[in-house]
Amino acid sequence: MILISDLYGLNYPNMDLPIFSDNLKSSASWVASLESERKSWGDALAERGDAIRDSMHRVQLDQVVQPGLSYDEARLIRSMKLVSTWSSDAESGFSHERLIELHRALIGATDDEVVIRKTEPAPLNAMHDPAPAILVPRMLDNAFDWFGAQSFGELHPVEQSSVVFLRLLDLHPFETGMELTALLAAGYYTQRAGLPPLVIYSDEATRERYRQAVEAAFRMLTQPLVEFFAEMLARAMRDGLKDAP
After folding, report:
1. In DSSP terms, which residues pair with 116 in a beta bridge?
2. Judging by beta carbons within 10 Å of its beta carbon (0-12, 13-18, 19+), is residue 193 exposed, middle or buried?
3. What residues does 174 pair with on adjacent strands?
4. What's the pTM value of the predicted model, to 2 decimals?
5. What is the CATH number of the domain that holds 132?
6. FRET partner for 105 with CA separation of 20 to 30 A, picked from 77, 81, 117, 149?
């Protein structure tokens, strides 16, 4: 049983996974659908690794949508490649420090620039209650402890990425670029399993389904977000293979 106190790390260290309940279980339908695309993707990655990864980064670039924000393309590519490189050495893991490095690369901050927010952000939706700024560093440390737990490692990579994405959105550690940083970070967990990075397609129908899935996840109904990410990964694999030289 998951308690609200677990969500905010109040039972640490004897706690279960955050933002996770009995509704988040592997569905045979989305797992089977993903696996049907995964074999072709894995074979192509083994034969044409660099070309496939470059094609996937182009798909990512084409689909980045951040209303009201703009990103330097070179910084965005560098950020994508950082995560891809880290995922190829899964033993080193993805840490709090790497999250900071990723965000600095994305926004062009210097190594000594403080990027963790000091102010209180606006909620992402009616169900979002962002952590107080003063607690964010400690809660990030707790979150990454959770992401290294044995029980987390037993989840399907799509479930892992969903938990990470939602937890980072929930904590909202950065003032700008939060959604994209969370998406790139969550994509580490799919890429280390041989899947593509996470991509949210930019057409309005898909974006609306994404918004609904995130809002449901903040109500502890996480399965729609898992299924949405699985669908996005399957679509990305098809597009990545189609566009690769």
Report:
1. 174
2. middle
3. 116
4. 0.86
5. 1.10.3290.10
6. 149
Tokens (6 digits) for 205:
């129908």
Two tokens at 97? Answer: 């420090």
Residue type, 124: L
Greatest pairwise CA separation for the chain in angstroms: 51
CA angle 48, 54, 56 (to 5 degrees): 100
pLDDT tens sequence across 177-228: 899 999 999 999 999 999 999 999 988 999 999 999 999 999 989 999 999 9
The answer to whether position 77 is within a domain reads: yes
Take residue 129 and report the two structure tokens written for it: 């209650």
Residue listed under structure tokens 């609200």: 4
Structure tokens at 74: 């070179």
Q: Read off the DSSP letter of residue 187.
A: H
What's the number of domains the chain is made of?
Answer: 1
